[in-house]
Amino acid sequence: MVVFGAGGDMAKRLLIPALYNLSRTKVLPEKFALIGVDLAEGTAESWRDHLYDMLKTFVGNATAEFDIDRIDEAAWKRLAERMSYVQGDLTKPELYEKIRGALGGAEKTHGTQGNAIFYLAVADRFFGIAVEQLGKAQLADQGEDKNGNSQFWRRVVIEKPFGHSLDSARQLKARILRTLHEDQIFLIDHFLGKDTVQSIMAFRFANGLFEPIWNRDRIDHVQITVAETVGVEQRGKFYEVTGALRDMVPNHVFNVGIVGRDGAAHGLRRRLDTHEEDRSIRRDALGQA
Predict the structure, then answer these.
(1) How much of the chain, in percent, has pLDDT values that exceed 90?
(2) Out of 50, 181, 252, 275, which one is annotated catalytic?
(3) In terms of pTM, does the model score above 0.85?
(4) Which of 16, 48, 63, 182 is the S-S candidate for 229 at Cβ 3.0 to 4.6 Å?
């Protein structure tokens, strides 16, 4: 996995703790390497130390996104041993040659077999240029043979916000598709991985009290409270361009709302399907009569 924006807020507060958790629960693949890419000067050692210090701030902190009672040193060591760091400007071709070398080293050392995930934990204004540079450096190529079969896979994970309007989102999608195939692109929102959101579907379907009444006929309105514990802090540049409204509402909050109403939509589809089956049965009966 190649993480662009390795020193940023997204990586240190969400992505790396998630990878640590995979290591702790022993589901992180054995053939795995983590390559951090950032504009800031640094080394693999300094990057690891910075991430470890951040991880320590989560211990016993119930208000943090990642609440742990202690650090599993063995799990951290398994992850830390797979880390390397590449410094450079993601708008410059020279960086991608360094990444090529790091991927080659990961393949030899950790047996990654040419597979790679490029995780763009950077500001959205860099999404298009990063994908284009990956294409120009042929890092997005999947080693297709003469029969069109891929010898390995390459994926690009793009965080929100994806564009700042419908037109800009369409333009960004068209720009990315000039380099990548559709099945190489993963658009994600990290809020969908939060415990509260993951519990919505179980709460709705596993509860005999709520299951029959969770629909538009019995729900007056929905309120979503986002109780943020983290301020702007060191993210001034991000918020100057993005702002809190665009950062939260059309991405995180709308996605949570969609998950919450999915059960009702599923129920509506089921009723429509049943209605069509009933009409079909009645037509058959009339025809036989």
Answers:
(1) 49
(2) 252
(3) no
(4) 63
